[in-house]
Specification:
about 240 residues, mainly beta, eight-stranded antiparallel sheet, 2 helices
Length: about 240
Amino acid sequence: MSMGKKFLIENTKTIFYALIIAIFIRSLFLQPFYIPSSSMEPNLLVGDRLFVTKYTYGYSKHSFPFSPNLFKGRIFFSEPNRGDVVVFKTPADNRTDYIKRLIGLPGDTIQFIDGDVYLNNNQILKTKIKKNFKVNCGPVILDTNVFEEKLPNGIKYISVYEKNNFFKNSDKFIVPLNHYFFLGDNRDCSKDSRYLTSVGYVHKDNLVGRARFIFFSSDRNIGSIFEFWNWNKILRLNRFFKTIK
C-alpha cells in the first residue's frame, strides 16, 4: 500500500471516529445551542451560545440528530421542575427547537388576569425591580418593566412586561396529562404555550434538554466574530460561562 493511500485511510478513520464520539456526546450528554430570538430577554440574548444537558429528563427520539425512530416514548424519564429553562421541539412540526421557561406541569391551570400570571388560581408572586428598561423584540425596542417572579417551588427568575402589554387576559389553560406549559421571559415578545395553534402544550417526548450555562456570547448587531479587531465590542465577556437561572 502506498504512503498516500495509507495516509488517506488513516485520516478517514480518525474523522469517522471523531464524528461518532461527537454524536455520542451530543446525543447523551451535552449539546450546544444558539439563541436566535429575543423571547427570553433579558436572561438570554440573541447571540448567546449555551450548553443543554440531554440526560436531565431522560431520552426520546428527539435526543438524537434528525429525531430517528429508534424507540417510542421516553426512557430514563425524570420530571422537569417548574422554572427550568428547557429546549424542546415545537409540537407544530416536531423539528424546530424552542427555548422557554417551564411554568405549568400536567394538570396545572394557568391564566392571565390583568397582565398577571395565575397558577392553579394563585397569582405568581411578582415584584417590580426596575422600570423603563429597554429590551429587543426583533427589530423593535420595547419599553418594559422588570419583575422578579417567584414560583410555588421557590424558584425565582427575571421577567419583563411591556408597559402597555397586549396580553392581559386569557381563558384558563389546563395542561393535559404528559404535557407542559412554557412561557418566554420576554412576555410580550414570545411565541409560547399561550398560542395553541403554533406552540401550545408540549408533550414530554418533545423535551430535548435543560439549558445550563452560556459558554460564548457575541453581539451580532455590532459585527461578525470574524472581525477580531472589534472583539472588544462584539464579545460579551461578562456572559461567558454564565449559569442560566
